[in-house]
Design brief:
3 domains; 4-stranded mixed beta sheet; 4-stranded antiparallel beta sheet; alpha+beta; about 575 residues; elongated; 20 helices
């Protein structure tokens, strides 16, 4: 299913390299004249993160002595230098690269570019590169290298005459015909699958489909990719699609702290599909300046899809693929496929479950993945989260399943650790939203956006009462220290704390004017009357401690809301 979905994505994209070719980042170009004489070196780095890409022949290689690519390769193959391997090994690879350039030149006697590269090596021009100032940067970078004929617009590796070389390679090694597991048609099959450039994997690329010789995974006398027959065209399509989705500037991917790379795409190029891809990227992207930038637009996108304002069909699907590097191979750690409309429904459920009263002026969003992670870590350092937690949260969002228990516990821990009044309000709202969402999905709690006066769960009631006592002290004294001193103990062992707080509240009431006395006395009475026999429990479970914090937060926000309303009247 994964390969078929990628194959379809290639066919509907329209802007991917043709079969047998692939985009490849090449940082350095050795400029030579038509006689193979060295002229200069051009660096094709765009900025600190991006290097210019070129359309070059796509070839697969593996084994202890992998073959060189056509007129482009690493610095070890092209210039006989390696920081990792001994010089003898680098010389062997460089010799193989030069020989292949010469062989190709002989098969294309009229091609000036091919002959120039072959002469570059035969005439000893390679040594001149080492005297260039840029050579030190090349050694540090270890970027890919190719050749450019002086005055030409395209590099040598882009020459369309190389298509025949790809045909020769296929004829020699992929002559068997079989049924392709992707397309179902009878076509020439591949022997080796091309490499995929995945963050954290081998810099030269890694294989999504591969078989180790004589490893016990061979069947019916098949070897290598004969165990999973894929046609040449299908292989070219799915690898091109994967490399596009994994490109540095791709807006169809995001990478988590534990080297997990997640890709997402829609089955069709419809308006709804495009909007869904844009919306999900905005929800998941790691924007350091504003982790939840454009979230409001994201909500509207998925509302429009689910409501039918943006039309979808039963053929519109949404795919989610999680990949992890494993040496020279790629491991599939997650795969999810569903109808686009159902996917929109699950995203909206995330927004609904997380939504909670917000009295802040800026109304900054708090739904995004990175904001969720930031509010449960010290100083918003998301690198400190548990390795598998981001992945677990993500799966909960896209599948509509309960949020991970570790997220819930981490949230409670941060509240206890950072209980002082100077905490930013957006941190408070983010944590309250997490607790609310977890309890709704796990226990189907009757937790609403605002204070729910019909909620008689003891933990929730205790949290509301604590907020009332805190506000009463503030009204009486102009300041409060209840939260700093008693929040942790009140949320864990109410019976040991609330009698003391209620006795203190008597003195606070005496300082208030009559209308305020009546207001606070009535509100306290309403909450206490809902407790079983008016008694506080000796301890609260972790679940009730979360309810405590939600009730506490909502009751506080209600006071702010009433104050704003009174000021507006």
């Amino acid at each position: 299913m994964i390969l078929k979905a990628l194959y379809d994505y290639y066919n509907r994209s329209g802007n991917l390299p043709p079969a047998g070719w692939a985009k490849k980042e090449i940082e350095f170009l050795i400029v030579i004249d038509k006689n193979g004489n060295f002229v200069t070196i051009e660096q094709r780095r765009i900025d600190k993160k991006h290097v210019q890409s070129f359309i070059v022949p796509k070839e697969a290689r593996s084994g202890s002595a992998p073959k060189p690519y056509l007129f482009n390769d690493t610095i070890e193959y092209t210039l006989c230098y390696s920081k990792k391997y001994p010089i003898a090994k680098s010389r062997a690879k460089n010799k193989a690269f030069a020989k292949r350039c010469l062989d190709v030149s002989h098969r294309h006697p009229g091609n000036i570019s091919f002959k120039a590269v072959a002469d570059f090596y035969q005439n000893g021009e390679m040594e001149k590169v080492y005297n260039e100032d840029i050579w030190q940067d090349m050694k540090k970078s270890n970027g890919n290298v190719s050749f450019l004929l002086q005055g030409a617009l395209n590099i040598v590796a882009e020459d369309k005459a190389l298509q025949s070389e790809l045909s020769i390679n296929h004829a020699n090694k992929n002559s068997n015909i079989g049924v392709c597991l992707v397309t179902g048609g009878k076509n020439p099959l591949i022997r080796l699958s091309a490499k995929i450039h995945l963050p954290g994997a081998n810099p030269t690329g890694a294989s999504l489909v591969s078989f180790q010789t004589n490893s016990g995974y061979d069947s019916w006398g098949k070897d290598q990719c004969g165990n999973a027959p894929i046609s040449q065209n299908a292989e070219a399509a799915y690898t091109s699609a994967l490399n596009k989705l994994l490109a540095r500037d791709s807006r169809n991917k995001f990478v988590l702290n534990n080297n997990r790379t997640f890709l997402f795409w829609a089955s069709n190029d419809s308006e709804a599909s495009r909007k869904a891809e844009v919306g999900l990227f905005a929800l998941l992207e790691n924007n350091n300046d504003d982790p939840d930038k454009n979230i409001a637009k994201v909500k509207e996108i998925f509302k429009s899809i689910y409501s039918g304002m943006v039309k979808t069909t039963m053929d519109d699907k949404f795919y989610f693929l999680g990949l992890a590097p494993n040496a020279a191979r790629i491991a599939v750690v997650y795969w999810n496929e569903c109808l686009l409309e159902d996917f929109a429904k699950k995203l909206l459920k995330h927004f609904d479950d997380m939504e909670i009263v917000d009295t802040r002026k800026d109304k900054k969003s708090y739904y995004g993945l990175y904001n969720i992670l930031s509010v449960i870590t010290l100083n918003r350092d998301i690198s400190k989260v548990q390795p598998n937690l981001p992945e677990a949260i993500l799966k909960s969002i896209v599948q509509g399943t309960p949020y991970p228990y570790s997220l819930y516990v981490s949230c409670l821990k941060r509240i206890r650790a950072e209980r002082k009044e100077h905490i930013e309000e957006d941190v408070r709202i983010g944590r309250a939203a997490i607790l609310k969402a977890y309890l709704i999905r796990k226990y189907n709690d009757n937790l609403t956006i605002m204070v729910n006066r019909e909620n008689n769960i003891v933990g929730y009631l205790c949290g509301r009462l604590f907020a009332v006592l805190e506000k009463e002290q503030l009204a009486a004294n102009g300041s409060t220290n209840i939260s700093e001193r008693y929040l942790n103990s009140a949320s864990a062992t109410p019976s040991a704390v609330f009698p003391t707080l209620l006795n203190l509240s008597i003195h606070h009431e005496e300082k208030l004017q009559k209308p305020a006395q009546v207001f606070y006395s009535k509100l306290k009475g309403e909450i206490i009357d809902k407790l079983t026999e008016g008694e506080f429990p000796s301890h609260l479970s972790l679940e009730d401690q979360g309810r405590f914090m939600v009730g506490y937060y909502q009751q506080r926000q209600e006071f702010y809301t009433k104050k704003e309303n009174n000021n507006n009247e």
